[in-house]
Amino acid sequence: MVFCPNWSRRLLLRPGDDAAKSAGRNRARGHVLPGRSAVGSVKRLEIRRRSRPGADAGYWTALFSPRDQLHLKAVAVSESMGVAEVVASEMVLVEVSNSFSNARPALRDSAASLVETLREDPFVRIIPQTFEQFESALQLYRQATDKSWSLTDCASFNIMEDEHIRAALTHDRRFAQAGYEALLR
User: Fold this and answer.
1) 126, 158, 162, 176: which has the fewest C-beta neighbours closer than 10 Å?
2) Total of domains in the chain
3) Predicted TM-score (pTM) above 0.70
4) ∠137-140-143 over CA atoms, to 5°?
5) What is the domain range of residue 74?
6) What is the CATH number of the domain that holds 50?
């Protein structure tokens, strides 16, 4: 599916599944591992080579949910980028889990497993929430009175600026509004 086989095989885990059983079911449904395509050779998207993108909650949710309207786009963009480190904040992981808070218990458990898997993956760099980061995001949030940026968006923008990241795995127009390339648009 995406960057690292370690977590990509587990994105669509059901409670009680082991990785081999889930990987076989995912392949049967057309879900693929990094660098592979369900149709063989996929025409690569015209995306400039990046050292590492930032990732928004919408990206992780789209990968996790085959029914998400951006699922296929997220998979295609991920395949076109190949193996790369992905950067996200703990606040983004909070948004991912929040998006499944009203789901049935099994899906909530799978979403929690996704967050744990992302935190352990060597190809996913999670920036921990600190007091300084929160204060900096809050300051940007206060300054952006003419924008609809969330506090999590502001934290992501600050992290991306500090890390010299210019592109984000997101469909969110607010990232483009802040001057970043939204790769799922």
Assistant:
1) 162
2) 1
3) yes
4) 150
5) 5-182
6) 3.40.50.1010
- Burial environment of residue 29 by CB neighbours within 10 A (0 to 12, 13 to 18, 19 or more): exposed
**What gap in Å lies between CA 51 and CA 131, rounded to an integer?**
28
Q: Which two tokens stand for residue 36?
A: 């592979």
Distance, in Å, from the CA atom of 78 to the CA atom of 167, rounded to the nearest integer, reads 13
Beta strand spans in 17-94 (E): 54-55, 86-89
State the number of CA atoms in the 13 A half-sphere of 15 facing the CB.
9
As given in the structure block, the two tokens for residue 154 are: 């502001």
Kindly report, residue by residue over 113-156, the tens digit of the pLDDT.
999 999 999 999 999 999 999 999 999 999 999 999 999 999 99
- pLDDT for res 179: 97
Residues 95 and 82: their CA atoms lie apart, in Å, by 25
Q: How far is CA 160 from CA 39, 43, 74, 120, 163, in A?
A: 34, 29, 20, 21, 5
- C-alpha span between 92 and 119 (Å, rounded): 12
pLDDT in tens, 51-110: 699 999 999 999 999 999 999 999 999 988 887 899 999 999 999 999 999 999 999 999
Mean pLDDT along residues 40-54: 51
